[in-house]
Design a protein that fits this description.
186 residues; alpha/beta; TIM Barrel
Length: 186
């Protein structure tokens, strides 16, 4: 199972606490800090890479991923294509998917993140949750592995895996919001 942590966007508020929230038991850490300048983001990504063995991805900033030496980039909806990114650099590419056609037309993507599977915990989202049946259908249609995102909890993570997801992703899932103990999945 793939474990994919997304940072909470609060680096500026408390850098020391932000670094403490980085998990050691994840496969990927997506640095999602939209309010940082490119220069600051490169520094944060490099510092993150020095503190973890997880593969570090940069949220929708190919330039920063390349400049920092990150393992890859996560592309938001409407971003450049994964295939184009692969032409620019040998990066791992994850892509947000909100519609079925997104799962079918993402040539070059290494992983797709369908979202939100459930109502998100860490932020408001106006999109209706996809649900497990949609996740199951998309997983059966997509040639690219899916990592479930949005409202993932210890209680529903296993159901996402049973529905065909290759892993689970989230902000609150790994940060410990609304639960006292870290997530432990087999």
């Amino acid at each position: 199972m793939i474990r994919y942590q997304i940072t909470d966007g609060n680096f500026r508020n408390d850098p020391a606490a932000w670094f403490e929230r980085l998990r050691r038991d994840v496969d990927f850490i997506q640095v999602r800090e939209r309010d940082l300048t490119a220069r600051d983001l490169v520094e944060v990504v490099r510092a993150t890479m020095s503190r973890t063995e997880a593969r570090v991805l940069v949220n929708d900033r190919i330039d920063v991923a390349i400049a920092s030496g990150a393992a890859g980039v996560h592309l938001r909806d409407g971003s450049v294509s994964a295939a184009r990114v692969k032409q620019l650099a040998p990066l791992i590419v994850t892509v947000a998917c909100h519609r079925e056609e997104d799962c079918l037309k993402n040539e070059g993507a290494d992983y797709l993140l369908p979202a939100p599977v459930f109502s998100p915990i860490s932020k408001a989202d106006t999109r209706p949750p996809l649900g497990l049946e949609t996740l199951r259908r998309w997983a059966s249609l997509s040639p690219t592995p899916l990592i479930a995102l949005g409202g993932i909890t210890p209680e529903n993570a296993a159901a996402c895996m049973k529905a065909g997801a290759a892993g689970v992703a989230g902000i609150s899932l790994w940060a410990g919001y609304n639960r006292p103990a870290p997530l432990v999945l087999g």
